[in-house]
Amino acid sequence: MNKVLATAGEAVALIPAGATILMGGFGLCGIPENLIAALHARGTKDLTVISNNAGVDEFGIGVLLRSRQVRKMISTYVGENKEFERQYLSGEIEVELVPQGTFSERIRAGGAGIGGFFTPTAYGTIVAEGKETRVIDGKPYVLESPIRADFAFVRAWKGDRAGNLVYRRTARNFNPVMATAGIVTIAEVEHLVEPGAIDPDHVITPGIYVKHVVRGLKYENRIEKRTVRT
User: Fold this and answer.
1) Which tens digits make up the pLDDT trace of 84-127?
2) How far is the C-alpha of 37 from the C-alpha of 43, rounded, in Å?
3) Which residue, among 86, 100, 20, 87, has the nearest Cα to 53 in the 3D structure?
4) Distance of CA 87 to CAs 22, 29, 40, 148, Å?
5) What's the CA gap between 91 and 89, in Å, rounded?
6) CA 17, CA 10: separation in Å to the nearest integer?
7) pTM, full prediction
8) What is the rounded CA–CA span in Å between residue 189 and residue 219?
């Protein structure tokens, strides 16, 4: 079984206008750099992007926002992206802000086939408006729906041709849970190996969740905020 595509360009050619895409990463850590760059180059528009945040203006998802390829963002905060903030405040982009824990659990529920879950987070706020609420053991809860997407872009440190993936340290972040919630999951891997080269006990995302694998050829691995001692 060989799920490897030749290039990131070949992978994003599968993405139609109007698609919904889960994109792994936290800020600039663990983002699928090659897939995002290829999608930007292709110019596919009217996208709904589901990601923790949009990173910075000139890199990662920020380039898709600047080129106006994103119609809607589902994320946990606006973050350090001034263009995202500008489009949000001016009403040029649709934004659904979700509490971070709820965001993670909605994606996990989507991947697990769970129809919804109750959480106390956001009860009594505008986030809960229009949603079912319930009192359980004397505590109020809000019903949240699962998140699934047409595609998921994830980045792994190592992957084999069958789609088994291993992540590295904090670059793991949202990638494993998003890999389960995409109808078509495309994994960008830093190191492509043959099946059997990864110890089965070390596999984090089993290949059954992954439809396509792309070898990442170039990484900038930018640091969003560098802090040094004086």
Assistant:
1) 889 989 999 999 999 999 999 999 999 999 999 999 999 999 98
2) 10
3) 100
4) 20, 23, 18, 25
5) 6
6) 16
7) 0.92
8) 11
